[in-house]
Design a protein that fits this description.
2 strands
């Protein structure tokens, strides 16, 4: 077991990660139970979370920023050539494939929460922005909302399978790192982050939550 561990993932990024998992799972569960009141609430929560993460991707700590895991095409090709090699990766944060996975998940969840703001069940439940589109448009958006949910489910399963692959084949404990924030670094290759910028994260969370609340209640 490595004694040299570096702080890579800040607290806001880790909290977002697990909060969005819980929110999406509950969104699915509440829909299965036909509890649309709770489904809408979990959707609003997911929207606030995803907006927070997008902004945090520009102002957060080093490895939370999008710029840290968007690579040149040559880097993706080089990484794919070593994908099935055992051993610790050279990336402190997201590797090229992990970065693409994060971007894809953020995009489909943003689409899901965005379309959910216009959806309805045609009878009783109408999302906050439903009045801004016609009935036929709302119907198409609602249908797409259901299709996109399946895309999210598929990407989530793929994400889990890749994590299992990394744990069993490459011996990298990605899930543990997203809990503790630290990654082992026996070769002293990684530059740790100095802290989690909690004050900035709290201010951002308040602003984003207030914005979603205003959209839901006043538009």
């Amino acid at each position: 077991m490595s004694n040299n561990k570096k702080l890579i993932w800040d607290i806001p990024t880790r909290l977002f990660h697990w909060a969005i998992v819980i929110s999406l799972c509950y969104s699915w569960y509440s829909m299965e139970q036909s509890n649309l009141d709770h489904h809408f609430l979990s959707g609003y929560t997911a929207l606030a979370l995803i907006l927070f993460r997008i902004i945090w991707g520009f102002i957060g700590s080093r490895y939370a920023k999008f710029g840290s895991f968007i690579y040149k095409p040559s880097e993706y090709i080089a990484y794919l050539k070593t994908f099935f090699k055992r051993g610790d990766g050279k990336y402190a944060g997201h590797n090229p494939m992990g970065g693409l996975s994060v971007l894809a998940l953020l995009l489909v969840i943003l689409i899901q929460t965005g379309t959910g703001m216009f959806a309805d069940d045609e009878y009783y439940y109408f999302a906050p922005l439903n009045d801004y589109v016609s009935g036929s448009t709302a119907g198409r958006i609602t249908e797409f909302h259901g299709i996109n949910a399946k895309v999210i489910f598929g990407l989530a399963i793929l994400h889990i399978l890749v994590i299992v692959f990394y744990r069993l084949f490459k011996k990298e404990k990605l899930t543990l790192a997203m809990i503790t924030g630290k990654k082992p670094d026996d070769q002293d290759r990684y530059e740790p982050i100095p802290g989690s910028r909690l004050k900035t994260a709290i201010v951002l969370a308040v602003i984003v939550s207030a914005a979603v609340y205003a959209i839901v209640n006043y538009l």
